[in-house]
Design a protein that fits this description.
By secondary structure, the protein is α/β, with parallel strands linked by helices. Helices cover 35% and strands 15% of the residues. It contains eight helices and ten strands. The protein has a five-stranded parallel β-sheet with strand order 5-4-3-10-9. α3 links the parallel β6 and β7. α6 runs parallel beside α8.
């Protein structure tokens, strides 16, 4: 989706056309992955280095045969890592595989059941990666104080979860997201928990810079159609945020048509 000329999305110093970022896991095939990503209009596509072949195993099909780095910005991620050391090692490998690519998504998980981020390990990994020249987009809890610490470390985007990864539960705590949006200057991209188009739209209406999703598209009954719906939802939510919604007026009606000068019925 082309960006609105007077509302650019700048990430790590570069303009990005689409505010929808998508993943590549859980699809039925690489072909379905390709079709869904095309329908999403996404420019940035995240890849789990520990779970997806992008050249590590030359004997197996490579995702890069379906998702060309010439067309998309690949965002290597550390899905499946539970320590800072694992995450750093994984992204160093990604940099080698992708010819020095430095824009990465850091996630360090706390446990295999909830996939909630381990923020102690995340902070440590972020410090190391930033010092090594990586541009770090970081999956994190929706804690506003920790979001500020990540900004201070030098990350390029804050990516708080809306709800648990793959849960489809939507945005469970808009208040914390609102505080993060008020207190950090970096792009805030909702990551994890989006289930349907309205969830994506709500994230954008809150003022988020973008939304990253995978399961909501890949596990839909029709992934390609859902990808198209998500693209429209992100754009609509952003436009609504820019337009500014009307004030809420609890228990007070307001007629759509003016009543001043209303003629009495004959």
């Amino acid at each position: 989706m082309p960006m609105i000329n007077d509302d650019p999305f700048i990430l790590a110093g570069k303009p990005v056309r689409s505010r929808l970022l998508v993943g590549t896991g859980k699809y039925a095939s690489f072909e379905q992955t390709r079709l869904a990503i095309e329908a999403s209009g996404a420019e940035i596509v995240t890849v789990a280095i520990r779970r997806t072949n992008i050249g590590q195993d030359p004997t197996q099909p490579s995702l890069l045969d379906a998702i060309s780095p010439a067309r998309y910005t690949l965002l290597p991620n550390t899905a499946g890592c539970y320590t800072a050391q694992e995450a750093v090692r994984t992204l160093r490998l990604a940099r080698e595989l992708l010819d020095g690519h430095t824009l990465v998504k850091l996630e360090v998980l706390g446990d295999a059941h909830t996939l909630y981020p381990n923020m102690v390990e995340t902070l440590e990994a972020a410090r190391i990666l930033v010092k090594e020249g990586f541009q770090v987009m970081v999956y994190c809890s929706d804690d506003p104080i920790l979001a500020q610490r990540l900004e201070e470390i030098g990350c390029v985007a804050i990516m708080p979860l809306a709800s648990l990864i793959g849960s489809g539960m939507g945005i469970l705590n808009p208040w914390n997201l609102g505080i993060i949006l008020d207190t950090v200057k970096l792009p805030v991209i909702v990551d994890a928990g989006v289930g349907t188009a309205s969830d994506a739209s709500i994230a954008m209406e809150l003022g988020c810079s973008g939304v990253l999703m995978n399961t909501a598209i890949a596990q839909a009954r029709d992934p390609v159609l859902m990808a198209s719906a998500m693209s429209k939802a992100v754009q609509a939510g952003r436009e609504a945020w820019r337009a500014g919604r009307m004030p809420k007026k609890p228990y007070q009606a307001s007629p759509s048509s003016p009543v001043a000068g209303l003629m009495d019925p004959v």
